[in-house]
Amino acid sequence: MAPNTTYLTAEGAKKLQEELAELKGVKREEIMERLRFAISQGDLSENADYSSAKEDQAFLEGRILELESLLSNVKIIDNIKAESGVVNIGSTVIIQEEDFEPEEYRIVGSQEADPANGLISFESPIGSALYQKKVGDVVQAETPTGNITFKILKVK
Fold it and tell me: 36 falls in which pLDDT band (50, 70, 90)?
């Protein structure tokens, strides 16, 4: 995997592009309006509205820069060619720990990870343990709560 590459699904890339457009348009204009109003009140040295708007502006501009950086080197994981039955970025994997029900996860980039909804980063302990493994492999992952061992039942 290339350094500084952002791995996203097409859906994830679209969401970030929409967020960037909203930040550069509507949100930036809202903050500029707040700044204009605060400046019109006079003395800026003790103006809480002005200080708050400047802080929000700094946060907004930082997020814009972050999104532009992420989106400047995106690799859409839906387009990654994967060997059949081998876990790769974009794969959906069904795993099972001993004595537990099978669990299904989709391997995604770190920007889209949402473990509670079955999206795990390929850089996470479980995601990296699964990466490039095959159906039938027994895999061990070192997680913050301890080591877990599971078997790969299916790769889609």
Answer: very high
In terms of Cα–Cα distance, which of 77, 72, 76, 74 is closest to 131?
Answer: 77
Cα angle value 116/151/118 (rounded, 5°): 15
Q: Give the whole-angstrom CA distance, residue 33 versus residue 28.
A: 9
pTM for the predicted model, two decimal places = 0.72
CATH of 80-155, one of 3.10.50.30, 3.40.50.720, 3.90.120.10, 3.20.20.100: 3.10.50.30
Residue 29 tokens, joined = 């204009």
Q: How far is 79 from 142, CA to CA, in rounded Å?
A: 29
Q: What is the phi/psi pair of residue 141, to 5°?
A: -125, 135
